[in-house]
């Protein structure tokens, strides 16, 4: 408990609670209405998932610029399969999910085979997929798919907690268990934290990179399913605004750009805070650009603080190492 009290997650939890209470007061209590809470949580599901998808790649020291393109392409494929080709909903969703996972897998394989930085590889993937997405839907909005799927997207437990938000939390929980409690997850984090030590321990860093990108693609496939279910329709703009939130959530949540950290809870809490910023913008009728400004400033500050924290830890390690050597010599 003492460790959690000093953690980034605890700080984010306190900030989130204070922010929420402030919004409740500013709205005159309207935010506590069942419909308001449902809308708030409904629009949190996808940001949580895209943040987790980016976090997994950051854990191995990589970047994924194709987050929005993968999700948008998968969502467009699902919509077109159902509306234009009459593919049953379960099969269409499964195909879209698999497409996203395969694209993520290909990203990882390309990074490993070419030894080109993931930044460049995913930038190329993003450009290709944006073209494919436009080819699939053009300038139209695809919305002629079964109403049952849309009903699921708006359904909520007791009229307050949307099912798509529950799905996002389940994915977050499973991801936390995978990264913290399983051998593949620990190997992935080891590769991101110290690739040299991981290789000397018999861990394949290449495999970790491939697994991270494939897992990221799979999570984006789920995000695409929830997007199709909760949106009025699918068009070329789906996923176009996912890139900044995908970085904001994990970085604000405490993820390190150098890799080796899994901050699932921090990512979820940070997604809440980013959503609160957007809610405050709507409450006080501010320009939409203020959201990007605030989020961007917070992300930049988080990166700087993360670098400072890393340097301090390195200095402490250097200071402690002579003591360890002396102790070893005395013994």
Describe the structure.
- This protein has about 325 residues and is an all-alpha fold.
- Helices cover about 75% and strands about 0% of the residues.
- The protein contains 15 helices and 2 strands.
- The protein has a two-stranded antiparallel sheet with strand order 1-2.
- A hairpin with a 3-residue loop joins β1 and β2.
- α6 packs antiparallel against α7, α8 packs across α12 and α14 runs antiparallel to α15.
- It is globular.
- It starts with a helix and ends with a helix.
Distance N to C terminus: 35 Å
Binned strand content? under 5%
Q: What is Rg?
A: 21 Å
Biggest sheet layout: 2 strands, antiparallel
Strand order of the largest sheet: 1-2
Q: Number of helix segments?
A: 15
Q: How many β-strands, per DSSP?
A: 2
Helix content: over 70%
Write a concise keyword list for the protein shown above.
single chain; 331 residues; mainly alpha; two-stranded antiparallel ribbon; 15 helices; 2 strands; disordered C terminus
Brief summary of the model shown:
The protein has 331 residues and is an all-alpha fold.
List the helices and strands and how they pair.
Layout lengths: L1 H4 L2 H19 L7 H9 L2 H14 L8 H19 L3 H26 L3 H20 L9 H8 L1 E2 L3 E2 H19 L1 H11 L1 H6 L4 H26 L12 H10 L11 H20 L5 H42 L1
Antiparallel strand pairs: 1-2
């Amino acid at each position: 408990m003492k460790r959690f009290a000093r953690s980034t997650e605890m700080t984010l939890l306190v900030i989130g609670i204070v922010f929420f209470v402030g919004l409740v007061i500013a709205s005159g209590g309207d935010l506590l209405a069942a419909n308001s809470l449902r809308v708030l949580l409904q629009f949190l599901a996808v940001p949580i998932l895209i943040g987790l998808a980016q976090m997994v790649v950051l854990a191995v020291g990589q970047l994924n610029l194709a987050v929005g393109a993968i999700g948008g392409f998968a969502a467009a494929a699902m919509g077109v399969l159902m509306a234009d080709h009459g593919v049953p909903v379960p099969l269409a969703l499964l195909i879209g999910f698999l497409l996203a996972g395969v694209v993520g897998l290909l990203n990882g394989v390309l990074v490993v085979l070419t030894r080109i930085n993931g930044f460049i590889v995913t930038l190329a993937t993003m450009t290709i997929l944006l073209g494919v997405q436009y080819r699939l839907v053009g300038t139209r909005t695809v919305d002629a798919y079964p109403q049952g799927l849309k009903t699921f997207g708006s359904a909520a437990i007791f009229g307050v907690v949307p099912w798509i938000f529950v799905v996002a939390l389940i994915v977050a929980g499973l991801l936390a268990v995978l990264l913290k409690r399983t051998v593949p997850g620990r190997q992935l984090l080891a590769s991101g934290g110290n690739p040299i030590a991981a290789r000397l321990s018999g861990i394949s860093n290449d495999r970790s990179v491939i697994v991270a990108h494939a897992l990221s693609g799979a999570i984006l496939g789920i995000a695409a399913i929830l997007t199709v279910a909760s949106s009025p329709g699918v068009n070329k703009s789906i996923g176009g605004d996912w890139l900044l939130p995908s970085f904001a959530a994990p970085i604000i949540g405490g993820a390190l750009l150098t890799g080796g950290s899994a901050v699932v809870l921090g990512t979820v809490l940070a997604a809440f805070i980013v959503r609160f910023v957007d809610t405050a913008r709507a409450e006080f009728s501010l320009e939409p650009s203020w959201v990007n400004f605030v989020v961007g400033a917070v992300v930049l500050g988080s990166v700087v603080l993360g670098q400072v924290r890393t340097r301090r830890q390195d200095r402490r390690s250097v200071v402690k190492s002579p003591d360890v050597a002396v102790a070893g010599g005395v013994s």
